Every structure is written in structure tokens, then in C-alpha cells.
Amino acid sequence: MTTDDRPAPFGRALCAMVTPFTEAGALDLDGAQRLADRLVSRGCDGLVLSGTTGESPTTTDAEKSALVTAVREAVGDRAALVAGVGTADTRHTVELALAAEKAGADGLLVVAPYYSRPPQDALEAHFREVADAAGLPLALYDIPGRTGTRIEPDTLVRLAEHPRIVAVKDCSYDLFGTQRVLARTDLAYYAGCDEQILALYAIGAAGYVSTVANVAPEPLRAVLDAFDAGDTQRAARLQRRAIPLIELMMAAGLPGTVTAKALLGTLGLPAGPVRAPLRPADRGTADGLLRAHRELVADAGQSQA
């Protein structure tokens, strides 16, 4: 499969964008527009709004809709907008899906219902009900480490028959299962874990949905571009160069939302505080993130020279 014929309904380089807040904790729509414009200008051809990184559990329905409308105004048709609408309640998820469609989203990200841990037949029915209700294409979000429920490969194969279920954001850490679905369906897979961007892309994924792209959109996009150009050694080198920052942001004990906002704030970019129960990173953590970011950006500049 070449990069030209692999399905990529929402683009290739997607950022799971933070939701900027003011220092008082209110939704910062101006900041969201400025951040979205910056990300798109630096290589992101898709933005996921109100996902995990976007603090969807602590934003209101009205804030979610307002965010889509504002970001659409800022980026126009330069990037696909995918709205996170997943909740633990099927009825609420359908309501959010319809609201996101009205607000101007291009697609919907629907996570497996969490906490109640529905069995696979109930999970399948949940996704089908959302897909039937909305007029937008769906990306299913498989992240059992957070939801407690895996979307099993056989379930994904069945769901792929639905005309509006077109993609998967994959945080399953099951490379074999991912390949089984890729071999049997036309679903577009997006790496949801930054350390797996190249690995999944190499076996036919569409691209990635990245938290780290909030602060390093160009170095991550460069991984895909090098692979597309046929320079797989360079792609591997670029992926490895990003690992220190990826590790600090995603695997050092703090949620990616916390580390992304800490680094964005240190860089003087729109972010603001996190909402409780999340707590901000301490100064030492922010300084460490900044050092890793500077090293990655410097390496990227040298490799392009």
C-alpha cells in the first residue's frame, strides 16, 4: 500500500489539541483560534478537539460546541476538524454528535464508553447508534487503559461495515490486533500513542493523532514525510529523536494534558491552566520539558540544514 491509496479521511498529521483556558479558568476561544492557526500553519492537516488532551471530561456541552465553531472560523478548510463526543452515556454521546455536526465539525471521535465496561455486543450497538444518528464520519477511539474496555478486533471488523465508521484512533498497544483489522477492512488507523507513529505508519496506518504535536508539530510531521519520500532510515532517525520529549510528556507519570499545557505556557503559547481534578506541573517538570523541546527543535533544524 502506498501513501496515495491508504485511506486518510481526516488527513495524516492530526494534533489532539489542548483546550486553552483563561487564568480564571474560562474557555479561551481567542487562544484556541491562535493555537489552531499555528498548528495548521506548521504541518497539522487535522485537529482533534475535546479529546482526552482537550479535557473533554471537564468541559461543558456548550463549551465543546463553541470550541468547534471558533476553531473552524480560524482554520477554514485548511484542516479537518474532528470533535470528541464520546461519553459513558449513549444518549449523551448522540446529543454531542449532533451538536458537533451543527457547529461545523468534519468528523467525530467516539471513545468506548468508560466505567460501565459494556460487553462487545453492547459496545457495537453503542457505536452503531451514534453512527446512525449523526451525518458525519466516525473515528472509534480504542484506549482500554483509560476506558477499561477493549474494542476487540472482531468487533472493529463488523463495525467497519457501517458506511460512516471510517477510522480508528489506536491506543490498544496490540500490534497484532491492529494488523488483523488493517488486513480485513478499509478502516483508516491513526496512531494515538506518539511512540508508535512510525511503527503503525509503516504497516499501513493513515497517520497519527498526537498530543506531542501541540508543541512539536513539525518534527512529527517530518517522520511521515521522510517515510513517504522513501527514506525509511531518516524516518526512523526522526522518530527516535522525538522519543525523549515523548517520554517526558507521555510516560513520566503526568497526563499528556498537564505536560502539554505546561510546555505551551513556558513557550508563551495559548494554554492556560488545567481544570481540576488535574493539577499543573511543577516548575522542575516544566523546565525539563523545555530542555527536551529545545533539543528536539535544534536537532530538527540541523537535520534540515
Gyration radius (Cα, Å) is: 18 Å
What's the number of extended β-strand segments? Answer: 8
Task: Characterize the overall form.
Answer: globular
State which percent range the strand residues make up. Answer: 5-15%
Helix content: 40-55%
Largest sheet: 8 strands, parallel, barrel
Distance between the termini: 31 Å
Task: Give unreliable regions as ranges.
Answer: none
SS content category: alpha/beta
* SSE run: EHEHEHEHEHHEHEHEHHHH
Number of helices: 12
How are the strands of the biggest sheet laid out side by side? Answer: 1-2-3-4-5-6-7-8
Mean pLDDT: 96
Give the key terms:
305 residues, alpha/beta, 8 strands, 48% helix, globular
Would you kindly provide a brief summary of this structure?
With 305 residues, the chain is α/β, with parallel strands linked by helices. 48% of the residues lie in helices and 12% in strands. It has helices at residues 29-41, 61-75, 90-103, 120-133, 144-147, 153-159, 175-184, 197-202, 217-228, 232-250, 256-266, 283-304, and strands at 13-16, 46-49, 80-84, 107-111, 138-142, 165-170, 188-191, 207-210.
Question: Would you kindly provide a written description of the structure presented here, covering whatever features stand out?
Answer:
- It is a single chain.
- With 305 residues, the chain is of the alpha/beta class.
- It has twelve helices and eight strands.
- The protein has helices spanning 29-41, 61-75, 90-103, 120-133, 144-147, 153-159, 175-184, 197-202, 217-228, 232-250, 256-266, 283-304; strands at residues 13-16, 46-49, 80-84, 107-111, 138-142, 165-170, 188-191, 207-210.
- The protein has an eight-stranded parallel barrel, surrounded by five helices.
- Helix 1 (29-41) links the parallel strand 1 (13-16) and strand 2 (46-49).
- The longest helix has 22 residues, at 283-304.
- It starts with 12 loop residues before the first strand and ends with a helix.
- The model has no long low-confidence stretch (mean pLDDT 96).
